[in-house]
Design a protein that fits this description.
The protein is α+β, with helices and mostly antiparallel strands. Helix content is about 35%, strand content about 20%. The protein is globular and about 50 Å long. The chain has 4 helices and 5 strands; from the N terminus they run E-E-E-E-E-H-H-H-H.
Length: about 150
């Protein structure tokens, strides 16, 4: 660790501004806290209040995609933290702005889908074939689908 430099802390924050959109949803953001200052990064994920578990800071089971979305949120925090550790290992001084360069809005859903499909060995051959067909059709429809474009 760089002398005098603290490691950042990360947490998910729902509806930081205390306002819901017209469709009664609010944004989940990643809060990065470093040396007495905070920065918030959009995840591009919007939820209704009843879909958020404020105690555990995660999407609850009332959202049908809660497992998938919680995994994306955790991976995004891990990606930012991995970058921070890389900077620490190189003994580089960094700021909140350096850590927030990796915007969650650039998460490509299809890349994530492909990686998940390749690493999941618990599904049967018919299910795998179905997932592969879905992936192929999505890719034909739109080669790049960013997470923030999905609702």
């Amino acid at each position: 660790m760089i002398p005098g430099m603290q490691k950042a802390r990360y947490k998910l924050v729902y509806n930081r501004k205390g306002k819901l959109s017209k469709d009664k949803k609010a944004l989940i953001q990643i809060e990065i806290y470093l040396e007495g200052t905070r920065k918030y990064i959009s995840t591009g994920i919007y939820l209704r209040p009843e879909q958020w578990d404020s105690k555990n800071r995660e999407i609850n089971t009332s959202n049908e995609n809660h497992i998938f979305l919680n995994k994306i949120l955790k991976e995004k925090i891990r990606e930012i933290e991995d970058y921070e550790i890389h900077l620490i290992d190189k003994k580089q001084h960094y700021t909140l702005d350096d850590l927030s360069v990796l915007s969650p809005e650039t998460v490509n859903f299809l890349e994530f889908y492909k990686k998940e499909l390749a690493s999941n060995n618990t599904i049967g051959p018919r299910t795998r074939k179905s997932h592969e067909t879905t992936f192929k059709r999505l890719k034909e429809f739109k080669p790049t689908i960013f997470l923030h474009n999905i609702d």
